[in-house]
Automatic annotation (TrEMBL):
Residues 6-118 form the Trafficking protein particle complex subunit domain. This is Trafficking protein particle complex subunit 11 domain-containing protein. InterPro entries: TPC11 (IPR021773), TPR-like_helical_dom_sf (IPR011990).
Length: 361
């Protein structure tokens, strides 16, 4: 009798396991998490909502619905970065990067890679170095990313992505990884003098990096090609290196009484005719952009032979003004002695220009 009962027990357990294996537990978990997120969103519990969104992203990833998982990863990574919860980001980013790889989402994979490379993220140097190496192999050498042996290979989909595809990155959101400051040396320049513009770049990548181009865009399009760098030797950076690039150009005569303003700066990583990353700094995308107008210091302070980044001034506008005429003006006169006496005055104007003065007011 005992043997018969044990046999029935084993059969019952096997039947229960079989029935349970046919139930999609992931759908049940996702449904409950969505309801919980809706509840905490209704009561403005943002912290709890983000925590549950992370659990939901993990559940979507475990059920291999990587596109939906990426939507939640993007939301929570942006939220925690904005609030500077770096330790939480350190725990989330490796999973988000893995999900972006498995879904073959190039833009999200690059964005999460840059998030990991941010100096504020205190992951191991091995992880950061491997992440930058994968990024370089993809952009420069057109090689698919290397992943851990436990992650299933997705090379076929990635090879299809290796075509001409610009990836635009708002560099202001990655403050610390790449920073840029612009400075016109004068707030007003006469039309016969050169405009001097200085562009300062600061690199926060853990390994040496080489960019392809630096492009500066102005509100007056005639100047767009006058402050560009295509010499890669000037765009090679060591870790934590900062560099100042100086440009000189002459204002146009028909731009007198107009303001010249920098609208954006682009730093290109990779060849422009292939898949490349376009790091952009703009004036209107962030509430506290890197072009924020601040107090100007008369001299850039130097400490131990290095320029302090915090002390670099910012001036992104300059005015083009009419030049002063090269003339000499002298007045000869003698004060009168008597009341109502005539008062002769002689005014001498000498033209010091190289050409004749046609008219004067």
């Amino acid at each position: 009798m005992e043997i018969s009962d044990a046999q029935k027990e084993r059969e019952a357990i096997a039947a229960l396991r079989d029935a349970e294996s046919r139930v999609n537990h992931s759908e049940l978990i996702i449904s409950l998490l969505v309801q919980a997120i809706t509840h905490f969103k209704k009561h403005s519990s943002n912290r709890m909502k983000l925590y549950l969104m992370y659990n939901l992203a993990e559940e979507y990833a475990s059920s291999k619905d990587y596109d939906k998982a990426l939507n939640y990863y993007n939301h929570i990574v942006q939220a925690y970065r904005t609030e500077q919860w770096w330790p939480i980001l350190e725990a989330i980013l490796p999973s988000a990067l893995k999900c972006a790889y498995l879904s073959a989402n190039l833009q999200d994979w690059i964005r999460f890679s840059l998030e990991i490379l941010n100096p504020n993220i205190q992951l191991s140097s091995q992880i950061k170095n491997q992440t930058q190496t994968n990024l370089e192999n993809l952009i420069i050498k057109n090689l698919t990313p290397q992943v851990e042996p436990t992650v299933s290979s997705n090379d076929d989909k990635w090879k299809a992505l290796l075509n001409k595809q610009p990836i635009v990155i708002d560099a202001d959101t990655f403050k610390g990884l790449l920073e840029c400051k612009v400075y016109f040396t004068h707030d007003a320049v006469s039309v016969d003098c050169d405009i001097t513009l200085q562009v300062a770049l600061k690199n926060g990548f853990p390994l040496p990096i080489e960019f392809d181009q630096l492009l500066v865009y102005f509100n007056l399009k005639e100047y767009d090609d006058l402050a560009n760098v295509t010499d890669v030797e000037k765009l090679k950076f060591s870790p934590n290196e900062q560099r100042i690039l100086t440009f000189n150009f002459t204002p146009r005569g028909d731009h007198v009484q107009r303001t010249l303003e920098i609208t954006s700066v682009s730093l290109i990583y990779g060849k422009i005719n292939q898949t490349h990353i376009d790091f952009q700094w703009r004036t209107s995308l962030q509430p506290n952009p890197s072009f924020q107008q601040g107090p100007l210091t008369p001299k850039w302070q130097i400490k131990a032979g290095h320029i302090l980044w915090e002390n670099l001034p910012i001036r992104r506008k300059t005015n083009v003004i009419m030049r002063a005429a090269e003339v000499q003006l002298t007045v000869e006169h003698q004060l009168p002695v008597l009341l109502y006496e005539s008062y002769p005055i002689k005014i001498h104007i000498k033209n010091c220009e190289n050409v004749d003065i046609q008219s004067a007011v």
